[in-house]
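Quick one:
INPUT:
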């Protein structure tokens, strides 16, 4: 355990591309600073729509070969961000993309959405106990925008954080570890509105403009507790998003998903601290997700199970 980097960040996402859109600048910044950045992606995004016409045959309703292709896109994106540790929950193909809410794929065998949380969570407990992160980033209870796999990723991440700290749970998965700080992805409403105003004034290639509430995690500014300035990593973030070419089209400081509706590409990323002690005075936003976390002790241990980890 002593050979782990001093600062360790874990991100849990539903599909390849979510990490680059939500956290690309944060991941690039902390990787550049020498932190261990670990990404766990819960599915391969097999049900995604495909943007480039030449690749449309990969989609689930044709060749159903999108999963392995997106694994390649993810690997390329991680190279752009400088992130070396990326994993698929339970191994490649263990949990399948459930599609949008209400579609028959929600109930396909192996679909992530219908997998019991306590069946998926131990896979993540093993990662948490191995990597021993100080900080976990995932979605809010609505998965940011209601996609079943995003909601399930939230549930599995929160449950695994709890179980990982419990000395009574599955000693075979490693020594207990309590994650000091847990964040949900957020976008302050004022920032989203400003971004869309910029977009409407810009000359971009997209068919239309998305709505503020299409952006996952938009909340009133007062709910945002941390902002991470990733301006210096803007190029890396855009490159990572471009690597997800089946899913994302990037044009300057804007991007679109398969609906071809433009959205702002944010290089400052925002979070809400939901577990742990804030590293900034009351009323001020944190500028470092590790602020206040005790990064001097890599050991954790059973005593760490007390405190903030309960619900
Ligand atoms: Zn997603």
């Amino acid at each position: 355990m002593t050979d782990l980097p001093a600062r360790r960040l874990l991100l849990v996402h539903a599909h390849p591309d979510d990490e680059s859109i939500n956290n690309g600048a944060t991941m690039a910044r902390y990787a550049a600073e020498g932190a261990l950045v670990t990404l766990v992606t819960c599915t391969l995004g097999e049900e995604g729509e495909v943007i480039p016409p030449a690749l449309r045959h990969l989609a689930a309703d044709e060749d159903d070969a999108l999963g392995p292709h997106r694994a390649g896109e993810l690997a390329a994106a991680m190279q752009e961000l400088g992130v070396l540790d990326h994993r698929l929950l339970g191994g490649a193909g263990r949990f399948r993309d459930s599609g949008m809410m209400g579609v028959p794929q929600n109930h396909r065998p192996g679909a992530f959405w219908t997998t019991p949380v306590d069946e998926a969570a131990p896979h993540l407990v093993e990662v948490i106990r191995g990597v021993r992160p100080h900080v976990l980033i995932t979605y809010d209870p609505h998965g940011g925008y209601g996609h079943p796999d995003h909601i399930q990723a939230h549930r599995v991440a929160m449950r695994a954080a709890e179980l990982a700290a419990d000395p009574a749970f599955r000693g075979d998965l490693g020594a207990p570890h309590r994650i000091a700080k847990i964040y949900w992805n957020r976008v302050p409403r004022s920032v989203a509105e400003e971004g869309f105003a910029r977009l409407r004034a810009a000359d971009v290639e997209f068919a239309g403009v998305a709505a503020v509430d299409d952006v996952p995690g938009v909340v009133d500014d007062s709910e945002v507790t941390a902002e991470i300035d990733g301006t210096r990593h803007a190029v890396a973030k855009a490159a990572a998003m471009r690597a997800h070419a089946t899913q994302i089209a990037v044009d300057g400081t804007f991007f679109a998903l398969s609906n071809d509706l433009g959205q702002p590409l944010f290089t400052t990323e925002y979070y809400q601290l939901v577990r742990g002690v804030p590293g900034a005075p009351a009323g001020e936003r944190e500028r470092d997700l590790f602020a206040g976390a005790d990064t001097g002790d890599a050991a954790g241990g059973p005593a760490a199970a007390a405190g903030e980890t309960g619900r």
